[in-house]
Amino acid sequence: MLTKFETKSARVKGLSFHQKRPWILASCHNGNIQLWDYRMCVLLDKFEEHDGPVRGICFHQQQPLFVSGGDDYKIKVWNYRKRRCLFTLLGHLDYIRTTFFHHEYPWILSASDDQTLRIWNWQSRSCICVMTGHNHYVMCAQFHPSDDLVVSASLDQTVRVWDISGLRKKNVAPGPGGLEEHLRNPASTDLFGQADAIVRHLLEGHDRGVNWVAFHPTLPLIVSAADDRQIKLWRMNDTRAWEVDTCRGHYNNVSCVLFHPRQELLLSNSEDKSIRVWDMTKRTCLHTFRREHDRFWVLAAHPSLNLFAAGHDGGMLVFKLERERPVYSVQGNILYYVKDRFLRQLDFTTKKDIAVMQLRGSTRSPPYSMSWNSAEHAVILCFRAPAQENSAYDLYMVPKDVSTQTPDSVESRRSSGLTAVWVARNRFVVFDKTHTILIKNLKNEVTKKVQVPSCDEIFYGGTGMLILRDSDHVTLYDVQQKKTLAQEKCSKCRYVVWSQDTNHVALLGKHCVVLCDRKLAAYASVHETARVKSGAWDDSGVFIYTTANHLKYLLKNGDNGIIRTLDVPIYLTRVKGRTIYCLDREIKPKTFTIDPTEYHFKLALIDQKYEEMLHLIRNAKLVGQSIIAYLQKKGYPDVALHFVKDERTRFALALECGNIDVALEAARALDDKACWEHLGEAALLQGNHQVVEMCYQRVKNFDRLSFLYLITGNLEKLRKMMKIAEIRKDMSGHFQTALLLGDIQERVKILKSSGQLSLAYMTAATHGLTDEAESIAASLDPDTPLPEVHADGELLIPPPPVIQFEGNWPLLTVSRGFFERITTDESKGFVDAAADVTEGEGWVEDEDLRLDEEEGEGISDQLAAEGDGGGWDVDEELELPPELEIKATHDGASDSYFAPPSRGAPPSQSWTSTSPLVVDHILAGSFESAAKLLHDQIGMVNLSPFLDQFLNIFGRSACSFPGLPTLSSMYAYPVRPSPGKTKLPALPIRLNDLVQRLQVGYQLTTAGKFRDAVDRFRGILLCIPMVVVESRQEAAEAQQLLTICREYINGLLMEIMRKDLPKENPADQVRNCEMAIYFTHVNLQPAHQILTLRTALTVAYKIKCLQTAGSLARRLLELGPKPEIAQQARKILQVCDKSPLDESRLHYDEHNPFTICGASYVPIYRGKPEVTCPFCNTSYLPEFEAQLCRVCTVSEVGKKVSGLRLSLQQR
């Protein structure tokens, strides 16, 4: 008997298994009803409404109901979902012994000590039949599984079989005798009616009172158990019933007996503290299971599984009679397993399943384990007996050719032994009953005996090695060298599963799994609450295992998870890709498909196989909070960020990994005040004050916004905040902002308006505003004394900012992660921040175009209303503090001989001699050499646009900190990693900073603020010579950035000039149209390209150049604009196709590639002479050679130069 679950409680008098769920009800002598999950070993619920012992209990087969009967004479029907009693049936006059539901009808059968049986209709809640005839307590009554019969047992020493067909006809079929019978025999009349229940058979033979009786599930048999310690088997037919045989062996009253649902066995329990299993055919006792102190009272069998339950004085136990685990072995693509006394072979590839040979022995003693020898095509089957000394094994030489479907049996060599496993091609090891290792050959002859450490089981441990098991450990033992190689802790290891390459092994315990390498060094383990059943290795090195109710995985780092739930336990044989091969408890091979995405993703994360992770993210459905929580737990929130779709989750992950850009995108989508506040705090920690400004604006946090403008030196926006405070009538904020700005007159005005005339007078008088002070004094009451102005009072004027700080704080340069690089590559260059932004009022509107008598939709100016972007201009020049020189002094003649040491050269002095990069010369303070380098490299002839850059960069070359008292400040020079011994200065400008600034230019362009956008792009362009790159990829990005700035500056300058042109005469209109069309050939972002095409389309359509307008409309539709824009373009195209002619001749050939002259804004077609700017590469007509470039404003057009150098490795 294999005990699966056991409880400790009061005496259990009734048991009932649930039909489908792993539940069992136990009714106790103390009045409680307990609902247990025997698979998870937990108490689910408890029902406590009975007064006194509860003896009868039964689950309904379909409904969420169960019925109970107790010593309080009450029958209660419960709903376990609602967890309450639905109703109570009253009628019995004494203790109720058993209660059972009918398998089909809404009936309940109860037996009572009032000597009656009653049948109740639980739907109408009434008693429909009372069966009398017994003259003592009725101990048990049950329905027949299929016929209209009831059997009852009583202490009057009789068993009665009742016919209830009359009751069925009366209560289930319509009419007095049933409609069908009435139609079948219309002439017959039933004058007195048919009895509801009649006694068909009276079985007498027991010498004492009968305690239990039961029908056979399929055969016409009845079994009864009585106080005469006997179990009687009865057979019946339609006319009579007779005793077949008697089973004797119990030493005390037999409490309960039942038929095995699927085998020819009887199970009985008794007050002699034993459970016995009987052979129905031989009438002999096969097994006896005893307890020390507990009498047994009741038995129950599961309706579909091989499970039984027994109730005793101390609780109850769930058990099964034999192991249901199939015996199998996997060799490559072949599965060998034992079923019905045959060794079978299943080919995984062809799905061919054949019987290989017939085994000796009976099916009632199935093999315990199998060991296969593929070299000799031999197999060892081990059999375990209840008494271990009777255990044995069979050695078979398996035939290689199988010709019939039912092969003959093969001669075997049988010997005693607990376990036998192969350890070499022609040697196997036997673990005998004395716990000694015997090494035998293929003839089953002992060749050697080996004394091993204390153990109680052996497993295969590799060629020539064994794994020995004791209670707490497993040991790797070398049989040849007779020594222990390794030992690992594993509580009661039950099975050992090797990987196909034998480099890994899994040790399966009752509730644990331990993964080890071939040297038995553990590297992962997991503890389970449910029993571990089986396991198999995946091709990728993941261990897949099953518990009683789950299919799970275990990774090499100890992470585990659930793949799917299981209805019934299965035993894994192989895992191949997405397919699971297994055997069920009926030893039927099965396959099913799983989704391995989750553990493949985690394995790729552990192995850092980022390409595989990217493939899984793109092609698989990784959903759920569990995978996100896993990535967060493992420190990979940036990975989770790339496939999470929920904006709130993306926002949290972006903040966790410090990705302000993604967090900003999510915050815009959520538009939640709390999100903006969190984003502002995170951006402030990173020094991204531009995002901080946006967040403060969204949440209207004016105080923090004012302080932000103060510390960044943005006095213009600080003045705006003062105006906002005035409009909001926030006196405190208004005054504080005026104080920060040093605006004396505004402060006086605020004090006057708030009635603080004395303070207004003191403020004006202290700061020298005499006229204002006299005016205030005149307005004061003559009796009010004027406050005294201190002559030595300090003026409250803040220091002016040295420079307006427009860039974000510099951050530590780190290499981009794999996923960040992939995201950047997929974006095709720089992030297009203009794609989703609504254009502003600077673009040409097309409201006056009337197509099909409908007005076209204008372009919204949502973005233009958000802000004017004025805070990006640099108004102040950097003022550097003068260097302090230490002059040597001499006290007198006595010290005249002392010569102080000469001042050493600062590190910056060597930067100009060792570096050919412009930025290093600027940081060294050598503006002259930096200007010469710019002249040689990019043909710079106008230095003035670079002056602000030079001063800003030089201000970052050194940091100053105070020294000791009376001494001057000391300077330190931050350096960057560089090859060789020479250390070069830290870089003030990085390529990523310029890329971030590019987004603002995109936004200004979208908003139609072209002049501000030109200033922005030109500022970025002039910073590119100050950048240092470290790889070819960065060099290409810098060149791409320069190209973007050039295209935008040239195009926007042309658009500004076009908008300033007169439009009165036809020639001016044609020139206006030409410039609008040229703008469409500037290489802009797609969103801006759509805007240029819409502008040119509007202008061309107005002057009736329909052929050109049609071409522009087609180009616009190719870019995929919004539906309303596309609809308008299609209407214009329809009009143009009707008469595709241009009324005016345009200087434009769309089929001939051209560039645009940066001065005259006319096309320079391919093959025509042109000159270019050596810095920004803008094209010009030859007549503009040697002039200043209009785009970059620093270089001479057509000048021969050496080329811009951004890296030390550049040649």
From TrEMBL:
Q: Where is the COPA/B second beta-propeller domain?
A: 343-584
Q: What is this protein called?
A: Coatomer subunit alpha
> Where do the record's region annotations for Disordered lie?
892-912
What PANTHER family does the record tag this protein with?
COATOMER, COATOMER SUBUNIT ALPHA
Q: Domain named COPA/B TPR: which ranges?
A: 613-768
Native organism is Darwinula stevensoni
Does this entry carry the keyword Transport? yes
WD repeats span 47-88, 89-130, 131-165, 203-244, 247-288
Task performed by this protein: The coatomer is a cytosolic protein complex that binds to dilysine motifs and reversibly associates with Golgi non-clathrin-coated vesicles, which further mediate biosynthetic protein transport from the ER, via the Golgi up to the trans Golgi network. Coatomer complex is required for budding from Golgi membranes, and is essential for the retrograde Golgi-to-ER transport of dilysine-tagged proteins.
Q: Which GO terms describe its molecular function?
A: structural molecule activity
What Pfam families does UniProt report for this protein, alphabetically?
Answer: B-prop_COPA_B_2nd, COPI_C, TPR_COPA_B, WD40
The protein's UniProt keywords, in alphabetical order, are: Cytoplasm, ER-Golgi transport, Golgi apparatus, Membrane, Protein transport, Repeat, Transport, WD repeat
A GO cellular component entry from the record? Golgi membrane
Limits of the Coatomer alpha subunit C-terminal domain: 816-1210
Give the highest taxon in the source lineage.
Eukaryota
Q: Give any single GO term for biological process.
A: endoplasmic reticulum to Golgi vesicle-mediated transport
Predominant location category: cytoplasm
Q: Which InterPro entries match?
A: Beta-prop_COPA/B_2nd (IPR006692), Coatomer_alpha_WD-assoc_reg (IPR047312), Coatomer_asu (IPR016391), Coatomer_asu_C (IPR010714), Coatomer_complex_subunit (IPR050844), TPR_COPA_B (IPR056176), WD40/YVTN_repeat-like_dom_sf (IPR015943), WD40_PAC1 (IPR020472)
Q: How does it assemble?
A: Oligomeric complex that consists of at least the alpha, beta, beta', gamma, delta, epsilon and zeta subunits. Interacts with SCYL1. Interacts with JAGN1. Interacts with TMEM41B. Interacts with SVEP1. Probably interacts with PEX11A.
The record describes its membrane topology as: Peripheral membrane protein
Annotated localization: Cytoplasm; Golgi apparatus membrane; Cytoplasmic vesicle, COPI-coated vesicle membrane
